[in-house]
Design goal:
- The chain is of the alpha+beta class and 425 residues long.
- It contains eleven helices and twelve strands.
- A four-stranded antiparallel β-sheet has the order 10-9-11-12, covered by helices on one side. A three-stranded antiparallel β-sheet has the order 1-2-3.
- Helix 9 packs parallel to helix 11.
- The N and C termini lie far apart (133 Å).
């Protein structure tokens, strides 16, 4: 009995111990739970607001950074587009030159133009071509001639029709100027031929003299005139012959006819034979330096014989000049052609690709891309020609002189290309 009682008491004491440990563990867990709840309340009231504030601040910074990135990306794209446009404008601006704006050489039908001013005397209109074709019949030669003339002067119908119908209107200024210069009524205008007034021709010649004068005074252009002096005065320009060089026609710069030499730009710069204004350097410095540009001093009045590069010859006008004035004008034209030939010779020496397309022969000087091919076919009569046509003015053959003037302006167009190319180097 005592043993059983002891076993029961021991089992009850073990149960009490287990119960007490459970109670203590439960109490400990409750305390931990209470502590966790207190920590949660502390985080909820103290830490969470700070975290939410930092989170909102980070979100704001992120959105600001995204907006800044998008703005920078759009600015970069805009800058790239503007850079491409600026490069294109720069490349286009590099091809600009003052000569192209000041002396724009082009054509208007059979007339060559410089600065929009026609150079040439007369041209056949469509009315004249129709009458010529009607009178010549239907022969093969007549058909070929009419086809050639139509291709060259097919522009004449519309312009003359406008001028004949609107003689008093402001749109037909060139034809009104012709009537005023001739002192004739509009009914007296020849419908078969278009005539350019001498005021316009003189202005075009003045533009050519001004162009040559500008090229001559451009530093390191290599262009100079030995025999003549230019005096640009608009429609009343003049060309002077230096009396000391009047008898030195044989000393004009000649080009070799039997061999074709390739002359570089450097040797052309250093070649002072054709540039009297340039100082000749010594042998030790000839290859390493360019000649210093020094314009030639103005000659004294008694050293120059002046020729008028302007003319006036209108039917029925009291201002018309006679034969002697025309002879003076033709001498000035020959001098002008010689100056242009010298200029084209300098251009050809520096760049054979810019050789004059129409051969010029004047005073023993032969210049042009076909001069090598012609060889010894040089005329011995000494007549000044351009493209095989005489450059002297003949009142009875104004169409021929118009074509010769167009050839001359075409050669000057090549000189303009040389001037633009030299300025961009």
């Amino acid at each position: 009995m005592d043993l059983a009682a002891d076993q029961i008491s021991s089992s009850s004491s073990a149960a009490d111990i287990i119960e007490a440990s459970k109670l203590s563990e439960r109490q400990h867990l409750l305390e931990e739970l209470q502590s966790i709840r207190q920590q949660r309340d502390h985080l909820r009231h103290n830490v969470f607001p700070t975290l939410h504030r930092h989170h909102d601040e980070l979100n704001f910074r992120h959105m600001t950074a995204q907006q800044s990135y998008q703005y920078a990306s759009s600015s970069l794209q805009s800058t790239r587009t503007q850079r491409i446009w600026t490069e294109k404008e720069y490349q286009q601006a590099c091809r600009w030159h003052a000569f192209n704006d000041m002396f724009f050489i082009w054509h208007r039908g059979p007339f060559g133009t410089i600065s929009g001013i026609r150079l040439g005397r007369s041209a056949v209109t469509m009315v004249g071509l129709v009458k010529k074709c009607a009178g010549s019949g239907s022969s093969a030669s007549g058909q070929s001639a009419s086809a050639t003339s139509t291709s060259m002067f097919s522009w004449g119908t519309s312009e003359h029709a406008v001028s004949s119908q609107e003689t008093n209107a402001t749109q037909s200024l060139p034809y009104t100027a012709i009537s005023n210069n001739n002192n004739m009524q509009p009914s007296n205008v020849d419908p078969e031929k278009l005539v350019v007034p001498w005021s316009e021709i003189n202005s075009a010649l003045g533009q050519i003299v001004l162009l040559l004068y500008t090229l001559q005074n451009t530093p390191f252009s290599g262009i100079s005139f030995r025999k003549y002096v230019l005096q640009p005065c608009g429609s009343f320009s003049k060309i002077g012959l230096l009396k000391g060089n009047a008898a030195q026609t044989a000393s004009s710069p000649q080009r070799p006819k039997n061999e074709r030499r390739r002359i570089t730009a450097l040797t052309a710069y250093l070649d002072t034979d054709n540039n009297p204004s340039a100082t000749k350097p010594d042998d030790s410095t000839r290859i390493h330096s360019k000649p210093i540009f020094s314009p030639r001093a103005a000659p004294l009045p008694h050293e120059v014989t002046w020729y008028n590069l302007h003319h006036y010859e209108e039917n029925g006008s009291i201002l018309s000049l006679g034969y002697y004035a025309r002879r003076n004008f033709n001498t000035a034209l020959e001098a002008l052609l010689f100056c242009i030939a010298e200029t084209c010779l300098v251009v050809e020496k520096r760049d054979m690709a810019l050789a004059a397309p129409y051969t010029m022969r004047v005073d023993g000087l032969v210049v042009g891309k076909d001069a090598y091919l012609e060889g010894s076919n040089t005329k011995s009569d000494g007549e000044a020609t351009v493209g095989g046509l005489p450059f002297s003015y003949d009142p009875g053959d104004g169409e021929r002189w118009t074509l010769a003037c167009k050839y001359l302006l075409t050669n000057l167009k090549w000189v303009m290309a040389y001037a633009v190319k030299q300025s961009s180097v």
